[in-house]
Specification:
This protein is α/β, with parallel strands linked by helices. Helix content is 43%, strand content 23%. It has a seven-stranded mixed β-sheet with strand order 3-2-1-4-5-7-6, with helices on both faces. Strand 2, helix 5 and strand 3 form a beta-alpha-beta unit.
């Protein structure tokens, strides 16, 4: 028997108790739905986790790879101090347009920039420009690209920065060394890269909830 109804109920309970109603985020979700965007944004309690991690990190500069409709970007940007900034990268121009509108409606247009185009190209350009390091990077884009995104994140961070990669469990398929799924292959390559990288210390956590069975990887840059 599927446990999904139980997971949904538990997420709803925790969101009701610890997140609460939020008209801005509800508007962002409604706008994304109306625009036909995929229903793959993080859940409210997961968004709150990102917010708390950014607060704990004391992040002043945040980079997000994969914007969608801007839901997670709102959570992250809300954790920034008055002089903080968030840069979020989105491949799809239509998604980027929805995200800009949602961030503006959240009062964050002056804080968050949505940059449209291939994330690999945008990240390479940031490295080439020698931008100031980011304190936190959240990677939630196409999974085959994760190894490249992580390599670039290492070039764009500093010792003490936090890198978070979402959707790494793939419903348990990440443990299948024989998988031919490009998302699984990319995710396994990501973790092989992290395991061999002396500049980071990391762990991965499995999660269940309204978004199904998945998880995230958390890496701290050491030096």
């Amino acid at each position: 028997m599927s446990l999904q109804p139980t997971w949904d109920a538990v997420d709803a309970y925790f969101s009701e108790q610890l997140v609460g109603p939020d008209p801005v985020l509800e508007r962002a979700t409604a706008a994304a739905d109306a625009a036909g965007l995929p229903k793959i944004a993080v859940a409210p309690n997961q968004g709150k986790l990102l917010h708390l991690l950014a607060l704990t990190q004391g992040a002043k500069r945040i980079l997000e790879v994969g914007t969608l409709g801007g839901y997670s970007a709102i959570w992250l940007a809300r954790a920034l101090p008055g002089d903080g900034t968030l840069l979020t990268l989105e491949l799809n121009p239509r998604h980027a347009e929805v995200a800009r509108d949602n961030l503006a409606a959240a009062g964050l247009a002056g804080v968050a920039e949505v940059r449209a185009g291939r994330a690999a190209d945008s990240l390479a350009a940031l490295v080439e420009q020698g931008v100031e390091p980011f304190d936190l990077v959240f990677i939630d884009a196409d999974k085959p690209g994760n190894p490249e995104y992580f390599r670039r994140a290492l070039q764009l961070t500093r010792p003490g920065s936090l890198i978070i990669v979402d959707n790494v469990v793939r419903g348990g398929a990440v443990a299948d060394a024989n998988s031919t799924d490009p998302a699984v292959i990319g995710t396994r390559a990501l973790h092989e890269l992290i395991a061999a990288e002396p500049r980071v210390t990391a762990t991965s956590v499995q999660t269940v909830g309204s978004k199904g069975y998945d998880g995230f990887t958390l890496a701290r840059v050491q030096g």
